[in-house]
Design goal:
By secondary structure, the protein is an alpha+beta fold. The chain has 11 helices and 4 strands. A hairpin with a 2-residue loop joins strand 1 and strand 2.
Length: about 270
């Protein structure tokens, strides 16, 4: 990722970390999700844990952080679990065990958990309509999201509205820039083809005029002289200078090229 993309991911994480759920059940749920950060050491997470702890009643401190997260995930996998608590848990798990990558317009989100917890989380998020792909990687359970729209909708749902708006704005700019580049490239290619065709037609016109086989004042003689004088002009521009339609000028140039090719073939005969 570029520096600006890393900064945007950091801003998104801080935006999620700044959220304090209104419901007590959601605060306790998110605390359980944040209690097991793995190897990650994050000031934003520490501040969030402190803030949520201050706003919540005592919780199960005897269980290990991993056991608390697993127990909570198992509860949220139940069909009767609330959507708001599921969102709070997923937000906490993304902060503590999630990895978000932005690179050249592509986006990738994954959670690395124990296999048991990951299976419960997959059940819960599938019920919420934001399913991820479950994989086993080096003995761990990994939940992966790759679809851009699904990831942005999920993160917006979890509270990252401002950061998602910035990601979408950058995507629009990147799309416009790509379309502009394609348009410029296509225009350049068309111009190059037109220039090459004009030079080829000018050479053919010079051969016929030098040979003197064109009737003076005739259509082919007029078009040949005009093309020789203006090899870079488009066919439409050439026709306009002669008072001809584009179609008439194009057919005349095609005839000129055929006659010049015939002359070259005759000259090559023994």
């Amino acid at each position: 990722m570029s520096r600006s993309e890393r900064d945007l991911v950091s801003a998104l994480r801080h935006e999620l970390a700044a959220i304090t759920p209104q419901r007590k059940c959601c605060r306790v749920t998110e605390l359980d999700a944040l209690a097991d950060p793995g190897r990650r050491s994050d000031v934003a997470i520490a501040r969030t844990v402190h803030r949520l702890s201050s706003a919540s009643a005592s919780r199960d401190v005897e269980a290990s952080p991993g056991d608390r997260a697993l127990k909570r995930a198992r509860m949220l996998a139940d069909t009767d679990a609330s959507s708001h608590c599921r969102s709070a848990f997923l937000r906490g798990r993304i902060l503590s065990r999630g990895s978000l990558s932005l690179a050249s317009g592509r986006i990738h989100l994954e959670l690395v958990l124990t296999q048991a917890e990951a299976r419960h989380v997959v059940t819960a998020i599938t019920d919420e309509g934001v399913p991820g792909v479950f994989r086993v990687r080096r003995g761990r359970g990994v939940i992966v999201w790759k679809d851009r729209t699904e990831i942005l909708d999920l993160l917006r749902r979890l509270g990252a509205g401002s950061s998602i708006a910035e990601i979408e704005a950058r995507g629009v700019v990147r799309q416009i820039r790509g379309e502009l580049n394609r348009s410029v490239n296509a225009e350049t290619a068309n111009l190059q083809r037109a220039v090459h065709a004009g030079m080829r037609q000018a050479r053919a016109a010079a051969e016929l005029l030098e040979e003197g086989g064109l009737p003076l004042g005739g259509l082919l003689q007029r078009v040949s002289a005009a093309r020789l004088a203006n090899p870079e002009a488009t066919i439409a521009e050439l026709g306009e200078t002669l008072g001809l339609s584009r179609g008439v000028a194009q057919r005349a140039l095609a005839t000129i090229e055929r006659q010049a090719a015939a002359l070259r073939e005759e000259a090559a005969l023994p």
